[in-house]
Amino acid sequence: MWCGKRVSVVLPTYNERASIRQCIEDFRQTGLVDEIIVVNNNAAPGTSEEVAKTCAREVHEPCQGYGAAIRRGFREASGDLIIVSEPDGTFYARDVRKMLAYAEDFDVVYGSRTVKELIWEGANMGLFLKWGNYSVAKLMEFLFNTTSLTDVGCTLRCVRRDALRRIEPFFSVAGSFFGPQMMVLSILMKQKMIQIPVNYSKRVGTSSVTGNKWVAFRLGMQMILLILDYRLTSWFFRSRFRRTPAPALGGVSPEDGALRLPTADLVAEFDEDEDKEKTRQR
Fold first, then answer.
1. CB within 10 Å: which end of the chain, N or C, has fewer?
2. Beta strand 81-84 pairing with 157-160
3. What is the largest CA-CA distance in the chain?
4. Which helix (H) or strand (E) covers residue 37, if one does?
């Protein structure tokens, strides 16, 4: 509980059997979390047994993908403030206090792993990943003229329930570049957002994405293309955002879970003065 608001933590898992139990305990021991949801995304054998030893609630998402798992967690979460993290040992549960403090003034709080002083020994944040994430984040910041951004790949984030209700029907990415899509949608919906530095430590085990530079490079290119697509679409094809919600994943109905979304009147907001100025320039 934080200032009278219920706090939910969503932990998507695929290959974190060795670290997930400790991660859950760390979040529980903060004394601030009311609900921990583990989304088993076809996880390694033995993961469910580890989760069963804790206070967390496990749900299964059959549609494979980082984005699919997080979206399922959002649908299951019942808190007023929803935190997403990874149970691989890279993030510190104590940073939840930092996220929640900023959530008092912002709709969405995104974490950044690129601050040198908070990158701990052994963390997978070398020159390639650090500057790759930083560069793509700055591209997003420049194209959308938004708040200072320094990382597009950080999972750790906190979103208000009412802010999530507005952007969730527009989610469409099930894969590893879901993070930037959520950030872009926050910008297009003109939500109050901020990115803050968080601790980043050595991972327990090997990541299936950032553990391979070629996979990470391909993911970075997908992120760039997504950002460019949204920028062009928001300029020239605004009606794209006036659509029905993305279809449910893995046969899961949008009505399942605690989060039931009104979608009839959801339209992305844009700056009318900016649009008029572009029209005059044409």
1. C
2. antiparallel
3. 63
4. strand 35-40
User: Nearest-5° angle of CA 220, CA 137, CA 267?
Assistant: 95
Residue with tokens 């974190």: 16
Q: What is the CATH number of the domain that holds 77?
A: 3.90.550.10
Residue with tokens 């070629």: 214
Residue 48 CA to residue 12 CA, distance in Å, equals 12
**What are the tens digits of pLDDT across the range 195-250?**
999 999 999 977 655 557 788 888 889 999 999 999 998 888 766 655 444 444 54
What whole-number distance in Å separates Cα of residue 172 and Cα of residue 181? 8
Q: What is the token pair recorded at 160?
A: 């208000």
Q: How far apart are CA 97 and CA 195, in angstroms?
A: 15
Q: Has residue 1 been placed in a domain? A: no
Q: What is the pTM of this model?
A: 0.83
* Residue 84 located in a structural domain: yes
Total number of domains constituting the chain: 1
Cα(14)–Cα(8) distance, integer angstroms: 20
DSSP 90: S
DSSP string, 220-243: HHHHHHHHHHHHHHHHH-GGGGSS
SS3 for 13?
Answer: strand
How far is 209 from 215, CA to CA, in rounded Å?
A: 6
H/E stretch holding 196: strand 193-197
Mean per-residue pLDDT over the chain, rounded: 86
Question: Is 2 inside a domain boundary?
Answer: no
The whole-angstrom separation of Cα 99 and Cα 33 is: 12
Give the C-alpha distances (Å, rounded to integers) separating 109 from 12, 54, 116, 194, 279: 18, 27, 20, 5, 33
Q: Which of 40-44, 101-105, 122-126, 134-138 has the lowest mean pLDDT?
A: 122-126
72 lies in a domain?
yes
Residue 18, exposed/middle/buried by CB under 10 A (0-12, 13-18, 19+)?
middle
